[in-house]
């Protein structure tokens, strides 16, 4: 007699499959009824596979960390080196946070994975969503790492169609079904090439939604960009115009004024000195940051979580520089977050609380100076035990509104003050802690501080709402197309 799964049990999570139906794979998720049925439906409607559109498919590579510095470059002289985070489900390619390699590496060591205008880029490895696809824009020249492939279709319109198609949730489910591996799933080339392609779909509703989404995002960005100007204006800080002519970049400075101090031209440049002078010109009360700190503590990276219980350690979600979001605050990506084992006594010493401020003291990149800041909020602490890496510093403050100080330090970073407090050794940027802690903080009354905090928070909330509206518009359009495909 065939066993019947009780009606109250979700048959997509607990199901029975005949041994004769097992196709050489033993992962239960592969045989989940809803996904298996979806794939059969899609394949019945498809006339081609991805391989029919590809003249060539090539994967990339990443230089070893020990050698990376000699391969990498900057945005002015280098070639974009794409990673998974540069791919977008809109089909566009984002260069935010992009790395760059030198032209010799692009043409030599990584010649096979070169990316040109109209190429289709598809994510094939890594946690989270599989088969995210983007198209290289006009006149683009770049390269890519091993977590995606470059598909040359020979036609930009074809690449755009395939990107829109692959970014549908129903197609991503099929791609993920065929991926293998545990902690780092991967979609092999045969599985990628055999993905079913339905021809002749009308993606105009998605194209319109993407345009509307971009408009929402642009409006959101304008709000975010207005925050620094608002705060500076409220504090009476007037940022001088930057003269970038060669004549102004060559300057003289008295030797006696730098004796025993840093021999760093940037620190003493007219631009930086003018920035400091503009802050000192504010009519509000001013004090050094160090006078506002009641406690500070460096982080700890702990040890790898091996899945076993350790009596002297506690498992913690451990913040890194990558969790500091440049626009908002702290962004936790469940697919990329790191859990580490921290010694109990170390955890007790570094334990964080709401309104603690986290400062990036090491790391950074060529296009992103070290010294970014974040503030601990209620939502983060709901995620369990929280620690932070040895590249970060935590401070507790007194006699000032912590949110105001956070916004103030963030603005100082954005206008270039913090960049003047960094040093660089072996490619790693380090915050000069003494200089950072001795920087001038403009301190208006607590009432004024709260007013500034409330207004900036409102701006950020409006910006977030606009971004979410854009996401919802696009997701709704995709669902409409998916319903037309599968008839549900």
Describe this structure in words.
The two termini are 33 Å apart. The mean pLDDT is 86. Helix content is 34%, strand content 18%. The longest helix has 41 residues, at 446-486. It is an alpha+beta fold and 488 residues long. The radius of gyration is 26 Å and the shape is globular. It has 15 helices and 23 strands.
Write down the Rg.
Answer: 26 Å
Estimated helix fraction = 25-40%
Q: What is the CA–CA distance across the termini?
A: 33 Å
Mean pLDDT: 86
Structural class determined from secondary elements: alpha+beta
Low-confidence stretches: none
Strand content: 15-25%
Continuous helix count: 15
Number of strands: 23
- The geometry reads as globular
Index terms:
four-stranded mixed sheet, four-stranded antiparallel sheet, 488 residues, alpha+beta
List the helices and strands and how they pair.
Blueprint: H1 33-45, E1 48-49, E2 56-59, H2 68-71, E3 79-82, E4 99-101, H3 103-107, E5 115-116, E6 120-123, E7 133-135, E8 141-144, E9 148-152, H4 156-166, H5 169-177, H6 189-193, E10 196-197, H7 204-234, H8 246-249, H9 265-268, H10 270-280, E11 285-288, E12 293-298, E13 303-304, E14 313-319, E15 339-343, H11 344-350, E16 357-360, E17 362-363, E18 373-375, H12 378-381, E19 386-388, E20 392-397, H13 402-414, E21 422-425, E22 428-431, H14 433-437, E23 440-443, H15 446-486
Parallel strand pairs: 3-8, 14-19
Antiparallel strand pairs: 1-10, 2-9, 3-4, 5-8, 6-7, 6-9, 11-23, 12-20, 13-15, 14-15, 16-18, 16-20, 17-22, 21-22
